[in-house]
Design a protein that fits this description.
It is a single chain. By secondary structure, the protein is mostly helical. The chain has a domain of about 70 residues. The protein has five helices and five strands; from the N terminus they run H-E-E-H-H-H-E-E-H-E. A three-stranded mixed β-sheet has the order 1-2-5. The N and C termini lie far apart (about 60 Å).
């Protein structure tokens, strides 16, 4: 005897558990996602530096300072949720349009790392140029 209501209940419970687990992994608002140890970046933040300079600096300028094409991501940083949404979905105002990178394997899986790098820059904890990576 099949019980479709039971299957539906299990699907809903599983979905809620997955959402809860994802939310539990999110850092507290204002938490620092970067670590600088003896002037050197942790691996994830260093990866964010690399990813930013491989794909984002063309529009957002060297070291995230902005350009005529894209705004500074250091002077007025976004919160993590807004940053994730804009990078994944894109945004646009007037003639300024940024495509979404949700399908880009060089960006989408590394959004939090890129955010950590920009957060360190915005906080003044990391200067301009290529940082050193902690071992």
């Amino acid at each position: 005897m099949r019980r479709p209501w039971l299957q539906l209940a299990l699907i809903v419970a599983g979905s809620l558990a997955a959402v809860g687990a994802a939310a539990a992994q999110d850092p507290a608002p204002g938490a620092k996602l970067y670590r600088i140890i003896d002037g050197k970046l942790d691996a994830k933040t260093y990866n964010g530096y690399r990813r930013f300079h491989a794909g984002c600096n063309h529009c957002h300028g060297q070291d995230g300072l902005g350009s005529t094409i894209g705004p500074s991501l250091v002077e007025r940083p976004l919160d993590l949720a807004a940053f994730r949404r804009i990078v994944r979905d894109g945004t646009g105002r007037g003639t300024r349009i940024m495509k979404g990178f949700a399908e880009d394997p060089n960006v989408a899986p590394h959004i939090d790392d890129i955010f950590a790098y920009l957060q360190a820059r915005a906080d003044g904890a990391l200067g301009r140029g290529r940082p050193e990576r902690a071992e």
